[in-house]
Write a structure and sequence with these properties.
The chain is an alpha/beta fold and about 425 residues long. The protein is built from eleven helices and 21 strands.
Length: about 425
Amino acid sequence: MSTMKFDTVVLGAGIIGVCVAVHLQKRGYQVALVDRKLPGNETSFGNAGLIQREGVYPYAFPRELGTLMRYARNRSPDLRYHANALLKASPFLWRYWRNSHPMTHAAIARSYSTLIAHCVSEHRALAAEARASGLLRPTGWVKVFRTEAARDSETRLAGQWYREYGVAFESLDAKRLQQIEPDLDRSLIGALRYTASDSVSDPNALVTAYAKYFEQLGGRFFLGDANTLRDHWQVDTNAGTIAAAAAVVALGPWSDLVSSRLGYRLPLGTKRGYHMHYGSQPGTRLNHPVLDVEGGYMLVPMAKGIRLTTGVEIARNDAPKTPDQLDAVEPAARRLFPLAGRLDAEPWMGRRPCTPDMMPIIGPAGNHKNLWFAFGHGHHGLTLGPVTGRLIAEMMTGEETLVDPRPFRVDRF
């Protein structure tokens, strides 16, 4: 079987890899997109479907002693850990904790916010080109509160984000919350609604639509093994060997398997999470994605039903599923909204690829010519897919970039 030649091979067909492939193909590159599964069927399949314009501060490691003691008991609804994973994860977690110091976190936000600022506009533009605008909902999302302490703390934070970065929000009292979400628990005392953020009714369908647009532009998708990547950027697929002048690694939580084999030692960590879909009781409706701040879970209206998503689980990448968090928060979720029965045969589990400074790795690999990295987006992979795709394509083609890419360079580690 003869070798197929392309300008670029993109490894990984999640939201990041697909968007990189689209933006390169739009600029006249002949691109091969390679993954072991169809586009959008790993990490991008299961998330809360948020495009988080408010997410200017990436999720930090908690530093309050009381919170750390609560997490140490390993019964918190928003974080669980496997004891046998902590030793290996400890260097990552230590650096993550250090980078979460308020002053360091604020400095990180000044760089990170440059990406976040374009997340909604870039998604809307790409969705329009891919004829997928109907999957985006410009209604914002909601944090709900049961106590004044939680409400006041989150409201102060929202005010800070507004003052620093112009992040729009609306403070809702109990009456106004009931007007926009009449079927939520009436004991809630209020909420915040982040009005500038979008949400997605089916993240897998959105990634699939972007991938189809890539193929309409002339790009080709292949089922293949990214771990076969070798010098001169050859990779084996079910259709034969691909050879390309350049390669982009966008394999999410598996990116380090390829990068480490090429000699890069990058501090990539993983946060696992779960979801389950439910029906809703007759005559009820959920209009927004809703985060129960004190409960540590989120309810999101999706095409398939109401999606219940969990917080973070620290575990080995290959460890079996342990959806204890899902079981723990389901009773609280049922009190928040009248859920009906489970719709999935088993809980879905995904892996968020994270760096200890909470910022993605975007740019040239450094030690190899024409090798590029695009991974480590943590909780904001869906949010930052089109921005990252555009930024990588602009750097590869020598265009003026949408944002300064230097804070996201690989050699910062």
